[in-house]
Amino acid sequence: MLEDGTYDALVFDAEEAEGGGVAVELTILAGQHKGAVVSVVSPDWSGDALDLLGIPATLVVTDGRPQVTFEP
After folding, report:
1. What CA–CA distance (Å, rounded) separates 16 from 38?
2. Where are the domains of the chain?
3. Of the candidates 9, 18, 7, 21, which has an alpha carbon nearest to the alpha carbon of residue 49?
4. Hey, is 67 helix, strand or coil?
5. The domain 5-70 is classified under which CATH number: 2.40.50, 3.40.50, 1.10.10, 1.10.8?
6. pTM of this prediction?
7. How many CB atoms lie within 10 A of CB 68?
8. Contact partners, residue 47, CB within 8 Å, separation at least 6
């Protein structure tokens, strides 16, 4: 589990999640957790999950709860 904070990440796997949204696998790009893999479900994504492959993302962990934002 990552400490609370903001992390630069890259999406290396994505698929539609049960119940809607997208399940993504992220790798952390810098800092002491560089190379760590994090799995996150983003309920707000409504596009094709494959469109997320290889794009940068920002992972924010607050009170142990991750939230991901995909870069344009």
Report:
1. 16
2. 5-70
3. 21
4. strand
5. 2.40.50
6. 0.87
7. 21
8. none
The distance from CA 63 to its chain's CA centroid, rounded to whole angstroms, is 17
SS3 content of the chain, % helix, strand, coil (to 5): 5, 55, 40
Q: Which residues pair with 8 in a beta bridge?
A: 58
Residues 2-50: tens digit of each pLDDT: 999 999 999 999 999 988 889 999 999 999 999 999 999 988 888 899 9
At residue 71, the pLDDT reads 86
Instruction: Tell me, rounded to whole angstroms, the distance of Cα 3 from its chain centroid.
Output: 15
Strands, sheet with 65-70, edge to edge from the N-terminal-most edge strand: 37-42, 22-28, 5-16, 56-62, 65-70
Q: Which two tokens stand for residue 25?
A: 């696998």
Computed over every residue of the chain, the mean pLDDT equals: 92
